[in-house]
Amino acid sequence: MERVPCPRNGVRFVALITVLLLGLMGILLLSLSLGAVPLSPEELLSALGGQGDEVHRTILWELRLPRSLMALLVGAALGMSGALMQGLLRNSLADPYLLGISAGAGLAAIALFALGAFLAWVPAVAWLGASCDRSAGVWLVPHGNGHFGAASDPRRCGGECLFWFREFDAVAVCR
After folding, report:
1. Measured between alpha carbons, how far apart are the two ends of the chain, in Å?
2. The whole model's pTM is what?
């Protein structure tokens, strides 16, 4: 059996990762320097080093850097969750709108608004609505053996089992 070399060990892969990381760093530095008070490269570097004008340090360390880092982390988390959803479902078109997850979140948020409840709870209630909607959809899927409930008995499904470990619950989808 002939061994096929992994493309990740190649020079092209290292070059691609290097270019992408340099581009990310460039965009991050650009987002730190642009704004209502533009910072020149010298002012940006001195503020990053904790020197220079107090206003520039405050703008950088208390406003722009936290926002830029949070945008970076949220973007990475959204990309990862989308890739996981598509990989687990083996459907390259799978997204929260197609699966009804967004509809469940929207329904729960609108119900909270209609009840006039404490509005700071909207994110938690929307998450709960999305989880319940997805779980209900999975549990109500009939299988080839005529039984309902995805994780009732994975051995009787007669096919492959797909396990979702998302949020705080584990759900098995059997086909």
Report:
1. 34
2. 0.63
